[in-house]
Amino acid sequence: MTSAMHSMEINCVHTLPVQIWIDGEEHTPSIENAVVQGDALWVMGQQVLLKSTDGIHWQDAAANLRLEGSFLVSSVSNGPEGLRVFARSRNGLRCYGWDIWTLKWEVLFSVPTSAPGIVAAWTKRGLLVAARHDPDTEILRQGIDSDDSPWKRAVVSGVAVHLQIQSSGVGLCATRGVGRTTQNPDTIPSAVFFTEDFGSNWREIAALQTMLLTGVPINQESALVGGTGGVLAEVNSGGLENIWQENGGDVVAVDVKGARRIAILESDDEPAIHGLLTLEAGLWRRRDVSFIDRIQCVKLFNEGIVVVGTRRALFLCRLS
Question: Which residue of 107, 193, 287, 316 could cross-link 202, Cys pair, CB 3.0 to 4.6 Å?
Answer without folding.
Answer: 193
